[in-house]
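The protein record quoted for completeness.
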Amino acid sequence: MTAAMETDRALVDRVAKGDRAAVRLLFMRHHARVYRFVVRQTGSEMMADDIANEVFLELWRQAPSFEGRSEVSTWLLGIARFKALSSLRKKKEDWIDDDDAAQVPDSADTPEVVTMKEDKGAALRRFVDALPEEHRTVIDLAYYHGQSVTEIGEVLGIPVATVKTRMFYARKKLGEALKSAGYDRGWP
């Protein structure tokens, strides 16, 4: 069997036995997806780069305990989400007082100008970004990372019914946002 045809689970079994080449193969297969997911979670490419690398170190450490109850990609995204949330909690926010904040000029375009500048896909991405974190995460995992409802539940550690409810409300909010921005169709 060639390396390209070897399943992710077989590679994790090899990693559990200390095979560094298997880690490299899994890294090549999944690093971009993990990185993009963490960028979406943290908003920081630098933080995402560090966290994505940590995910594969964690893969090396945890491979012997991988039980195969989920897909390897789902497992890796779960590790990535935990690490991203932990990093965000540790991250110190720069403090600015109210007087300093009032002096910062608001150079943002009005919603109408922004909408005129963007195509529907870019506008939709903006509306997704404006969703509450719990809704944004399920949309991100489903539509930008191709995860199923079951896999999303595994990554987030929530029941499938909760995933479905969050998807319903997120889609509803996105449809309303698109409609109010002048797009004739809601959710495609």
Remarks:
- The chain has a mean pLDDT of 83.
